[in-house]
Every structure is written in C-alpha cells, then in structure tokens.
Amino acid sequence: MLPFRKIEDKELTPHTEFEMLDLALKNGVLPIIDKENIVLCINEEDVQKSLNFIAYIGEKYEFVLLDAQNHLELLSRFKEISSSHTIDNFAVHENEDENELDDFLQNDDDLLASENSAPIIQFVNTLFMKAVKQNCTDIHIETYEKEGVVKFRVDGVLTTVTQVKKTVIQSIVNRIKVISHLDISETRIPQDGRTKINIANQSVDVRVSVLPTYYGEKVVMRLLMKSDKIPTLEELGFNDKITQNLRSFLKHSYGMILITGPTGSGKSTTLYSFLQNIDKNTKNIITVEDPVEYNSFGINQVQVNDKVGLTFAKALRSILRQDPDVILLGEIRDNETAAISVQAAMTGHLLLSTLHTNNAAAAISRLVDMGVDSYLIGSTLLGVLAQRLVRQLCPKCKEAITISDEDADFFSIERNTSVYQAKGCSYCNQTGYKGRKAIGEVITIDAPLLKVIKKNSDEYYIKEYLETSKDFVSMQTQLISLIKEGKTSIEEAIRIGIKEI
Question: Which of 64, 138, 156, 468 could serve as 7's disulfide partner, Cβ 3.0–4.6 Å?
C-alpha cells in the first residue's frame, strides 16, 4: 500500500473546476476541496488504476485514499454534475444564436456515422443518468415546429427537464433508435424496441416506443426495474390489514386474484411482488404480458404479439397445456379472455390479473358485464385489490395552510382544519413531493358478499353493502387520513381522483 493518508467518511465537496478533470476521472482520481485545498482521492482497493496519473502529476497535489463505497458515491456525484452541464449545453436559451450549435455539430446530417456524434451520445447518456438519479419511470422526447422538449415522469407526474433545439432533436432520436435496434431510416410508422443501460453499477431495462407526429418523431422510454429490485408485499406501502389479506389470498393453490386501477397506479409492480412470495423452484409460473414488464429468472414469460395472432386469449389457451401452477395475465381485456381466466381458476390454477376499473366493487360488475356468471365469481374469485399511488409531501419544505371551505366540503373534512401544501426545495427537485405511498381497498369474496352479488351485481349496490362492513376501508377514507396527517396535499388528492360513490 502506498504511503497515502486515508480520508475518513464525511461530506466530500467535488471540485468540478479541476484543470485536468476528464483525465483524472478516467484514471479513477476524484478531486475534492478539503479545508480550501485541492485534494485528489483514489480508490484504496484499486490504487493500480491511478498510478499513471499519480506519476504524471507528481507532487503538485496531495493524494488521499478513499474506501471503495465512498469512492463510487463520489464518482456518481461527479457524473451527475457533469450530466447537468451537458444538458444545459443543448438547451434552448434566450438570445442564443441558432448557428452556434449548427457550427458545433458541423451541419453533419448523418451524425451517428461521424466522429461528431460524441456530443449526441453524451447527451442521451446524461438523460439516462439523471432519470435514474431522480427515480424517473418514463422519459419523453417530443418534437415540435421550432424545438424539442424532454420530460421526465417522476412519481406519476410529467415535468419538463429541458428544451432542445430542433437542429439536433432528430439526431437524439436516431441515437435512441440505434441503441434500441430500430430502423433509423424509417420515420413513417411506429416502432417498438428495448435496450439495456448500465449506470453506477446498476442495470436498467428500457422499453422504447417511437411514434411519428406532425413535426417529427416522439420517443417514450419506460425505465423498468430489475426483478431483484421488485418490492416485497410489505415494501409496497399498504397498511398491515391489506398486506395480511393479500398474503392470505396467495396461500390458495387455485382461484383468481384481481388488481384494479388506472394506468400508472402500480398494478404490474404489485403483481410481480405477488410472485416474489411464490416458490419458483416448486411451482411452474407462466406470465402472458403486453409487453413483458420485468425480465425475471425462473418465470416463463410470454409476450403478446397481435401481428402474428398471439393474443391474450390464444396465449392463455396454450399455456393451460404447459402444466402451469401459477398464471400471471397482464390484463383481462375481453369476454374471451375473461371466460378462459375463470376456467383456468376453476381447474386448479392460481391466476393473477388486472382490470381497468376505478374501485374494487366495479371489478365484480365488470366481470359480469364480460359474461362471467355471478355463481362462477363466488367459486373462482378469491379477492380484489384496488390501488392508487399517492405522492407524499416533502418533509423539508411542506407548509401548513387552512383548508378552504370548498375543499373541506368536498372531502368531508371539518372547516378551518390545518392541512399542508407543496412548496418545493432542492431536496425534492422543486416538486414539493418526495416519494409515493400505496393506498388500496380489498374485497374478499365470502358467503354474505356472494349473496349480494347474486341478487344484484351493480357496483353501487355492492359498494353500499361494503360500507356496512367493519373490515372494509375505502381508498377515499385512507386518502382523507393522509391529508389530515399532513402526508399529502389537497391538490394531490384531487389529482388521484378518488371520490365516494
């Protein structure tokens, strides 16, 4: 070990103005400011990588050792700062000469085939880096008449990250097509692809959709977590009562479990968290999805392809001959799929699926509308979970206000109650919110409820019965509790859009 002192774990201040920053980072050397002096940090477990730079720079600066974990975290901070600068370089600024960027790119139409494609590649890489850092789920690149816009969906809400000049937007789209194995010469029809990126030792699957619009192509990239990052039932954030109900459903060897909610409410993540509680070694698990959300070892995944006739119904019929124990069906979309799903649940299979309804009671009505007899619901359906993801207020900047009379009446909260609203700070990226919490309502199909369903399957009638049950807690009630506790805002509750029937 070289005779360098070791710097202890503390808040390190990156020095981004270092004269040879790029060369230093390339050799694993991270410059910081320590007591107003420039100090160069090297990884104590990989000193060999930095020896050439140490010999090159001599004794001009002090070198210190940093443990591997803190070295990696500091390197990530350097990359984050660098990515912000890169995006700013491509952004549209007032009074800026449009020709400056054209000169920078040398007006090369085929940027990806030239050496000058490096800035475009760097720009796309920094988008991914910032997206992962901000826990973004979707990246949108939109093309308009005079410029392009880049947006991130964070905690279910789209926010504009930057505006990009029209002269480079197509090059950015082309770069994304290349890494997704799509045809860069085809701009007239939609294209779908996938890619994988590695950032700070994290591997992220990216699902890419390209759509031709009036002024150019729009790209949406969905960032998918790896299967080992899927949360457990406890980590989903539901209250203990709901978690216990879900665990009891999963103990059954056959039957149907449904999850309902709008797009973006976390249904797919909840489905895969169910699979985490099932032994993959002793159970044959098969999924039918459109598209496959999370690549997972030990699970046989089938992707629907309507172009070749592989529909949900056809795939489901086929996998019933594959001796499955557990079937995950991405969505019950039509009468045929509903009928086969009920048949599968009746013949010794545990079937997990989703429906697009606003609440749990509506899921039962929806099945009846799809032609499922009410008596079959009682013998196959184990339970229904309706869920939403609610943004939580940033604990560092939320501010107290008095609820308005209009909002108090709408949410059945006492007037003059003190609630909290979003403000925005650096900790929450000026959004006013930090993280999301799952809320849900669960229906267990028991004998009393089955009698109600046989008598009248209308969702209003079912909902009326559920309100008399002590075990049922609606999402609206949970949402009001979050508002009163200061965990979310009135604006977020309105955005979620839950209202008692």
Answer: 64
Percent of the chain with pLDDT over 70: 89
| pLDDT tens per residue across span 406-430 | 999 988 899 999 999 999 888 888 8
Q: How far, in Å, are 207, 308, 360, 423, 475 from residue 494 at the CA level? A: 30, 42, 19, 17, 13
Core vs surface per residue 428-438: b (16+ CB within 10 A) or e: bbebbbbebbb
Asked if residue 208 has pLDDT above 90, the reply is: yes
Asked if 217 and 135 count as a contact pair (C-beta separation under 8 A), the reply is no
At residue 162, the 3 state secondary structure works out as: strand
Cβ neighbours of 113 (radius 10 Å): 11
- pTM of the shown model: 0.71
Mean pLDDT computed over every residue of the chain:
84
Three-state DSSP at 393 gives strand
Helix (H, G, I), strand (E, B) or coil at 248: helix
CA atoms within 13 A on the CB side of 77: 15
